[in-house]
Amino acid sequence: MALPGFLELLVLSTVMGLAIFLSLPLVLRRSRTERLVNFLSGASIGILVFILADVWGDVAALLYGGNSYFTDPALDAIFLFGVVVAFGGLFVLENRPGRSGEVSPTSTALIVALAIGFQNLTEGMVFGTAWAAGALGLLTVIFVGFILQNITEGFPIAGPLLRAKERRLTQFSFYFFLGGIPTVLGAGIGFFWFSVPLAVFFDALAIGTCLYVILPMLKAAFRPAETPAASLLKQRLTYLGIGLGFVVGFLVNAI
Question: pLDDT for 41-100, tens place per residue?
Fold first, then answer.
């Protein structure tokens, strides 16, 4: 027998998760200059940096358990395990024999999508738990906030591929789906059961993957251009993009 309100929860969480696709038209736009690509690449890094800080803020509230200055050792162990699994697993995978050790743009985009997917899974759990509790005022804030945040999350996923000569709709759609649809899974879990250790673990996976992927994105963004003047302009646009991306992430999260 279907539980009351469960179908509505799945529909709304699907809207939240698929809001990430609203950034797709700008990502797939073909008429773009090199300057715009540099700026958008920087913005994608800035948004990702804010997501990393935002996830840490969420998991820190769970680790410290309120106003205490001391963390729960069991939750600490789960968090550390999740970060090591994500970061260490990706390191081993990307540096296995036969590979150059350089993270490709495609792999970078996939890793970012996984990081955002882990984050959205825990956010979906929060939404599902609030829905089951009938907290209508909180639901409105969470729903609007998560939609706005998910719209911006398409840019970090697409950032590593912005310089690709051919941008395929199917490829971007797969990555966006991977980043957004865990919101629905998390909402379904949260409706029935919210687990602090599980939320800590998935947040740790998100942090580990973000930490692993930020460095290659920065390396690509600051790679020298053909001439010193072009390199300087690229650096300035990247810095501006990173700053704006972080500010946009902050403002969207503050709404």
Answer: 888 899 889 888 888 988 888 888 766 677 788 899 999 999 999 999 888 887 776 666
| pLDDT single digits (tens) 122-156 | 888 888 888 887 766 666 666 777 788 888 888 88
Helix (H) or strand (E) holding 226: none
Q: Are 37 and 163 in contact (CB under 8 A)?
A: yes
Tokens 């990502």 identify what position?
A: 27
Task: Show Cβ contacts of residue 109 under 8 Å, excluding neighbours closer than 6 positions.
Answer: 157, 158, 159, 160, 161, 175
Residues 149, 245 contacting (CB under 8 angstroms) = no
pLDDT at 164: 73
pTM value is: 0.83
CA distances for 140 relative to 107, 108, 130, 190, 211, angstroms? 36, 34, 10, 17, 31
249 phi and psi angles, rounded to 5 deg: -60, -40
Cβ neighbours, 10 Å, residue 8: 10
